[in-house]
Amino acid sequence: MSEFHVPVMLSQVLDLLDPQPGEFVVDGTVGHGGHAWELALRIGKEGTLVAFDWDEAMLETARARLAHAPCKTLFVHADYREIPSWVAKNHPAGPDCVLLDLGVNWEHFADPTRGFTFQEDAPLDMRMDRSRGEPAAAWLNRASFDEIRRVLSEYGGERHAAAIAKKIMERRRRGAMKTTQDLVQAVLDAIPPRLRERRIHPATRTFQAVRIAVNRELEGLEDAIRAIALTLREGGRMAVLSYHSGEDRATKLAFRSLGDEFETLTKKPLRPSGAEVATNPSARSARLRAVRCSRRLTEIS
Ligand SMILES: C[S@@+](CC[C@H](N)C(=O)[O-])C[C@H]1O[C@@H](n2cnc3c(N)ncnc32)[C@H](O)[C@@H]1O
Hints:
Layout: H1 10-17, E1 24-27, H2 34-43, E2 48-53, H3 56-65, E3 72-77, H4 83-90, E4 97-101, H5 106-110, H6 136-142, H7 145-156, H8 161-174, H9 180-190, H10 204-214, H11 221-229, E5 237-242, H12 245-256, E6 262-264, H13 274-279, E7 287-293
Parallel strand pairs: 1-2, 1-4, 2-3, 4-5
Antiparallel strand pairs: 5-7, 6-7
Helix pairs in contact: 7-8, 7-10, 8-9, 11-12
The structure holds S-adenosylmethionine.
């Protein structure tokens, strides 16, 4: 297995963004810099790549990996929701290309100490940005039954959301939830025994849902995507790769709300090929949408 996150739908992303020599590109979720490296090669020595990630560990890897990129590179430790204010301050002409490759990085699961994986026992953290916010354990120990049930159901599509939330409340009465295995056990205790041996681990949906809640991944996403698209210069392109129906829906609604000044480059979301999914199973749920700004009306401030 590669030591780096494998960039998903790379050729389709490059086709849609169509980066040109000398262009100004923002990668809002640089991760291990897989997409960013290819973007950098295309914009060349006259180009600029601005790489955002809210996870300091990812930025460190991206910095090392892009150290020999041919273009100028800038690294920003921040939420991509801050792209509009960054652009207004630093490059008001607007970017030529923006990429958002949402969600988690392979390293989040590969590093068991971060609490994203149910395969190992570790403190239940799951924050991508460890410099702020509340670890998953703290959230699970204070959220109400209704809140936990809603999160498991809405973000995880978990059919046993109520039963799992109930087991979490029972577990809390005996002592605080601390580790990934405390959460795994709550799931196993809640579901019918015949479901415990399934190919997909029964805690998969719960872990995904709690991660989305702890990192507030869907909060204000539609507004954020819209605001980022509005920073594009005339002719600029933006692509969003999502892995969850909530992310894809927010992207679709944001792009749809942009009006006649924007051209939709993907009538329906593009999906990865069977060959890509066979070599990189984490691409299986990917959906790719893109727009192009044909006329810039707003001056960003
Ligand atoms: C799927 S990975 C990106 C992989 C990257 N395209 C590559 O080829 O290596 C998503 C990255 O986005 C980051 N991320 C997720 N949500 C973010 C947010 N709101 N702001 C900034 N970074 C975010 C994660 O920390 C993670 O590194």
